[in-house]
């Protein structure tokens, strides 16, 4: 395989949450807030919900409610559940009386497509399927031809997602992929559930897509560490996370096939895997924004991605290039912990 595909997976970037007393702080007297945390496997990733509450009974209930919101999103938008509305849409080309949450995510995706000039496009699924087919057992074990890609790209067009009177339809052959947006939406729903239950200080993190509200009772912020891709256990920077969301897209997350080494993040405009940067980390007000824009920046690359972010209110980014440069948007460093780098 061409070396340009191999270089995409040379290094790892891992988001870690730097919090002290992560499972539960020691019991405190006089109703003082304590930290409680649970981690579960959902949406093909590890999800952690951490809250400060006055007692374990309260914490258990609000955490369960938060996870239930994530389960609900997974039931609607999982690509691996046959009865999910995502799979029904991709199989039948339409969903009647679609769930409002599913409609919201599809409509919101068009906003990110517009802002990124099509670099973010959930109708990318036929292209992903084409690449995957090339590296399945018995396949040619080589990239698609230019003609194959050009033909498949005719099915990639977010403007062809039709939503009317609660019904969703696609043109024949079109399919959608929600891997760059569903987790962020699920995190937002979990946070909103916590807030509705009176929780003011908490975070939800789903495989590197996190949203953080309030702070610790001692007044210190949540800390989000971005691990050095070259040195395990070392961090390139730490973010003070108060009422923000942070998400990272990178070429280390998934492979179509271990031997193929092809990035799961392809450019909807060309059909080829994205290249040029190792990862993009985005700070935004909501997790769905951070998730989608992190994907868009990764696809767009250093110059185009940075230009987009600079034109978005309340959005910042940090890009790690293949030659290990750190590229910051103008306001990103305001979120960094003092002395972090």
Automatic annotation (TrEMBL):
Question: SUPFAM superfamilies from the entry?
Answer: ApbE-like (SSF143631)
What's one Pfam family here? ApbE
EC number(s): the record gives 2.7.1.180
Molecular function terms, GO-annotated: metal ion binding; transferase activity
Quote the PROSITE patterns the UniProt record gives: PROKAR_LIPOPROTEIN
Name the domain of life this protein comes from: Archaea
Reaction equation(s) it catalyzes: L-threonyl-[protein] + FAD = FMN-L-threonyl-[protein] + AMP + H(+)
Record InterPro entries: ApbE, ApbE-like_sf
Q: Which cofactor does it need?
A: Mg(2+)
Name the keywords, alphabetized. FAD, Flavoprotein, Lipoprotein, Magnesium, Metal-binding, Transferase
Q: Which Gene3D superfamilies match?
A: ApbE-like domains
Using the UniProt record, name the top-level EC class of this enzyme in a single word. Answer: transferase
Q: Which PANTHER family match?
A: FAD:PROTEIN FMN TRANSFERASE (PTHR30040:SF2), THIAMINE BIOSYNTHESIS LIPOPROTEIN APBE (PTHR30040)
Q: What is this protein called?
A: FAD:protein FMN transferase
Native source organism of the sequence: Methanosarcina horonobensis HB-1 = JCM 15518
């Amino acid at each position: 395989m061409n070396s340009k595909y191999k270089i995409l997976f040379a290094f790892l970037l891992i988001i870690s949450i730097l919090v002290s007393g992560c499972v539960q702080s020691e019991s405190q007297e006089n109703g003082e807030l304590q930290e409680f945390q649970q981690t579960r496997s959902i949406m093909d990733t590890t999800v952690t919900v951490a809250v400060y509450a006055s007692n374990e009974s309260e914490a258990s209930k609000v955490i369960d409610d938060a996870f239930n919101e994530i389960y609900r999103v997974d039931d609607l938008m999982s690509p691996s559940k046959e009865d999910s509305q995502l799979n029904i849409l991709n199989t039948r080309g339409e969903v009647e009386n679609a769930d409002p949450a599913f409609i919201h995510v599809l409509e919101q995706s068009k906003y990110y497509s517009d802002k990124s000039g099509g670099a973010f496009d959930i109708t990318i699924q036929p292209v992903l399927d084409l690449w995957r087919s090339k590296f399945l057992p018995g396949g040619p074990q080589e990239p698609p031809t230019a003609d194959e890609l050009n033909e498949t790209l005719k099915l990639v067009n977010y403007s062809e997602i039709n939503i009317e009177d609660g019904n969703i339809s696609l043109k024949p052959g079109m399919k959608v992929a929600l891997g760059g947006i569903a987790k962020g939406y699920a995190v937002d729903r979990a946070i909103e559930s916590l807030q509705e239950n009176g929780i003011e200080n908490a975070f939800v993190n789903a495989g590197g897509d996190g949203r953080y509200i309030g702070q610790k009772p001692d007044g210190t912020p949540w800390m989000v560490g971005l691990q050095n891709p070259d040195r395990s256990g070392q961090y390139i920077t730490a973010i003070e996370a108060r009422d923000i969301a942070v998400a990272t897209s990178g070429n280390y997350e998934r492979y179509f096939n271990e031997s193929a080494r092809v990035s799961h993040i392809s450019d909807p405009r060309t059909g080829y895997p994205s290249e040029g940067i190792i990862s993009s980390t985005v700070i935004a007000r909501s997790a769905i924004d951070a998730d989608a824009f992190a994907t868009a920046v990764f696809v767009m690359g250093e110059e185009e991605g940075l230009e987009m972010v600079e034109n978005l209110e309340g959005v910042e980014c940090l890009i790690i290039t293949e030659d290990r440069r750190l590229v910051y948007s103008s306001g990103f460093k305001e979120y960094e912990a003092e002395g972090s780098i």
